[in-house]
Here is the input.
Amino acid sequence: MTIPADEIPFGDDRSVVPAPSKPLAVARQFLEEHHADQRHETLVYHRGDFFDWVGTHWLERDDDGVEAALYRWLENASYWKEAKDGPELVAFDPGKQRIMNVIHALGRGAYVDARLDPPAWLDGAKAATEYIAMQNGLLHMPTRRLHAHTPIFFSQLALPYAYDPQAPQPTRWFQFLEELWGEDEEMISTLGEIMGYVLGGGTSQQKIFLAVGPTRSGKGTVARVLQALLGMENVAGPTLSGLATQFGMAELVGKPLATISDARLNTKSDSTLAVERLLSISGEDVLSVPRKFKPDWIGRLSTRFLILTNELPQLSDASGTIAGRFVILTMTRSFYDEEDPELTTKLVAEAPGIFNWALEGLDRLTDRGHFKQPPASAAALCRRWVVRRTRGAAWPLASVRRAEYRPARVDSAHAPSERCDRMRAASGPAAESLCSGASR
Here is the structure.
């Protein structure tokens, strides 16, 4: 359909766009009309994905969504086409190939450097790792100052509640922690540091968090509260076996936390590959992540792992490196038949107060510079295991078969500290890291 230039009805709201032969110009007009902000465009393309600014953070937008928006925009659009009798307004007539051309051009017009690791300031003006998006603004964590939201802050995470420095103390949370650990302030303090580290987006410590305890010991409740503080859309739930598959890391892209509640592995090869991936991700390595029907994602995964298990996971790592990555929380009391089905709801209701408590933990960790292994966790490990040096045997927390360990026999003739010293001497540097009570 064509409309001669001198016959366009006054007031026609038909959108006039560049010709289909100029897809980049079409893409730029789309950005100007639908994603304009005086501070920054609100649609970007980063590492193979589109992201849409939603007022508090950047949300991944799938290709189908972008395609649908372009179809709606171009459905009634026209462009000027040269004809014998002069320019004519011609229907754009969006078809698959024309839309694909515009999408490809849109990715180039909205491109953000793939080397940029979120969170980041798109203008590169300052470091972004000290900021976190809340519902009521950008929080500068060291000073506790709130700043206005801006699309220049490129982050896929916004915590699902407002920052309130005057939030009530989370009394039910404190009661829950006392039920778990009694007067063990070291264990409670370590949990606060872990939660502050995860919520604050830290990865530089290169640690993996392990919660070990019997059934109904509170591991799952701690994990659910942390998940709620982050927002469930920001959490992945892989299995160790799943990590060892071809696309096992794909679900971790853009997820600051992965909780693993099933630490079992099917084969020795699964164990070796799972350990390799745990080490690479926690070690901030640049990775190529295969994704189904999409280009590989390349970058550093900011995912922190929280592994929940009733017993020590069987992980194969002859070097012992994986053992030094763990910060361990041990639970000993089971609440079997004493469960409160409303407990998680009660605790999550205290989210702003728990967040403030976790920020205090982050402050402690920042001041110290490293995590400390809770003494109770280190002592429990020393009491429970003596490592046998066998061919291919791994260090504590890294065995392929349970048979590589034997329970430590209680010897009343030696003090616990002496037994631990003997175990460390027998087991090498990885056991030294675990049993020393400090993990750096």
The longest helix spans residues 351-368. The two ends are 71 Å apart (CA to CA). The chain has 14 helices and 20 strands. The chain has two domains: 1-158, 171-378.
